[in-house]
Amino acid sequence: MTTDRSVPLKIGILLVAFGTRTPQAQAAYQSIEQKTRAAIPDIPIRWAVTSAVMRKKSTGDGQPVDSVEMSLARMMEDGFTHVAVQALHVISGKEHHDLTINCRLFGQMRGGFRQVMMGLPLLGTGDDMEKAAAALLSAVPHERTPREAVIFMGHGSPHPANACYTALMYHLQQTDAGIFVGTMSGRPGIADICAGLQKEKITSAYLLPCLAVAGNHTLKDMAGDNEHSWKSILEKHGISCKPVLKGLAEYDAIVDIWVDHLKTIVGTFL
Fold first, then answer.
1. Which pLDDT band, with edges at 50, 70 and 90, does 71 fall under?
2. What is the pLDDT of residue 148?
3. 176 and 107 fall within a common domain
4. Fewer Cβ in 10 A, N or C end of the chain?
5. What percent of the chain lies above the pLDDT cut of 70?
6. Is position 3 within any domain?
């Protein structure tokens, strides 16, 4: 970490995503960048992708995509003194935790950055939880009938922060008892949700991703026709499904939460 105050302040933003090849998801990333530029003007924005598989694919303009570590190394080489890192994570799970540690280590390198800070995830605070719940409630399809459930599918994590999904469902059900939140890896899972729906004799449900973008997990694990998808499992339990292929980053109120976390970090640099 450099403490040389004679070096001019140069702040940068690093947005971090898992990565995707889905055009709709890529459009969502572009929208996030536009909203970030509008909220925090005149500060350079760079991207990093955490998926090694996605990094092997080029972006739409043919340019390679870097890992977080490579992006930070390039930013250090380019003379940035402060970097605000914002990952499009929903919870502070294992991936978020590991990324925070790596960013902190970059900030401690001698002769490098003055400071590297990591933004909170979507559900980082109690206030975030309330804002996210309000945004998801507004995302419920208007044509839904009173006896139809709404299910949000999250990724899940072995990290204790997975409990945030249960907390989110609690907030949602204070307004609408027919809304459920589950995860692909963790509890509540699809089996728990099926049991709850059958108990209430609900035979129809809307399926929505509780994921940043509508990528592979949404298309295959949530709405796919394979036997392990949530859609197929629900249908096997006699519950008809209506998938909605729209990721969290396509809702302005959700993106605002991530951007607010970024603004908080940048504000500490100035």
1. very high
2. 98
3. no
4. C
5. 95
6. no
In the sheet that 204-209 helps form, which strands lie side by side, from edge to edge?
179-183, 149-154, 204-209, 240-243
Q: How many domains does the chain have?
A: 2
Query: What are the tokens at 74?
Result: 């390039």
Which three-class secondary structure state does DSSP give residue 184? Answer: coil
Tracing tokens 């396509």 back to the chain, one arrives at: 250
**Whether residues 255 and 241 fall in one domain:** no
> Residue 21's pLDDT is what?
80
| % of the chain with per-residue pLDDT over 90 | 84
Query: Which is nearest to 248 in space by CA: 161, 165, 188?
Result: 165
pTM of the model: 0.93
Q: Give the residue numbers marked as catalytic.
A: 155
Q: Mean of the pLDDT values across residues 67-72?
A: 96
Domain that holds residue 137: 126-247
Strand 240-243 relative to strand 204-209, pairing: parallel
Cα(85)–Cα(100) distance, integer angstroms: 9
Report pLDDT for 4. 58
85 sits in which H/E element? strand 82-87
- Do 135 and 117 lie in one domain? The reply is no
Q: Are residues 242 and 263 in the same domain?
A: no
In a domain, 34, yes or no: yes
Q: With left for phi above 0 and alpha for psi between -120 and 50, is residue 190 left, alpha or beta?
A: alpha
Query: CATH no. for residue 197?
Result: 3.40.50.1400
